[in-house]
Amino acid sequence: MKNSSSIQAQFGAHLKKLRLQSGLSQEAFADKCGLDRTYVSGIERGVRNPTLEVIGVLAKGLGMDIKELFSFERLV
Hints:
The protein has helices at residues 7-21, 26-33, 37-45, 52-62, 66-69.
């Protein structure tokens, strides 16, 4: 994994937190979004860099606006 302060890692950790708060397993969330579970896993671990289109799909899968996916404190 990239260093823990990378924006990818922070975005992934925030996505995982939101997914868990929604009560969704990784597999259920991936299915809901039409994505592969391993791809979602990579995003959550900060090793995959999702496109804007995928970010929109993730937000829709969680039932929220895209801006809510970016509502986290960025650590430098």
